[in-house]
């Protein structure tokens, strides 16, 4: 079984990497980009029967800093 975890900074948290990408896109001539938020995707190969609750616990303890980041989980 696979799980994909998407981790993003919460709204209101400064995203310097996203701002650098927005600035670079403008410098390359791409107009109309008003904001960029950058995050990460973590793919997990899990044993069959691993619950979504277990993946959530992984996120809470290690994969996401829940003070400043939010996450979503996709199971496949």
From TrEMBL:
Superkingdom assignment: Bacteria
Source organism (scientific name): Thalassovita mediterranea
NCBIfam families attached to this UniProt entry: phosphoribosylformylglycinamidine synthase subunit PurS, PRK05974.1
Gene3D superfamilies: Phosphoribosylformylglycinamidine synthase subunit PurS
Keyword entries, A-Z: ATP-binding, Cytoplasm, Ligase, Nucleotide-binding, Purine biosynthesis
Keyword flag Cytoplasm: yes
Protein name: Phosphoribosylformylglycinamidine synthase subunit PurS
GO biological process assignments: 'de novo' IMP biosynthetic process
Top-level taxonomy: Bacteria, Pseudomonadati, Pseudomonadota, Alphaproteobacteria, Rhodobacterales
SUPFAM superfamilies per UniProt: PurS-like
Enzyme Commission numbers on file: 6.3.5.3
Pathway assigned in UniProt: Purine metabolism; IMP biosynthesis via de novo pathway; 5-amino-1-(5-phospho-D-ribosyl)imidazole from N(2)-formyl-N(1)-(5-phospho-D-ribosyl)glycinamide: step 1/2
GO molecular function, one term: phosphoribosylformylglycinamidine synthase activity
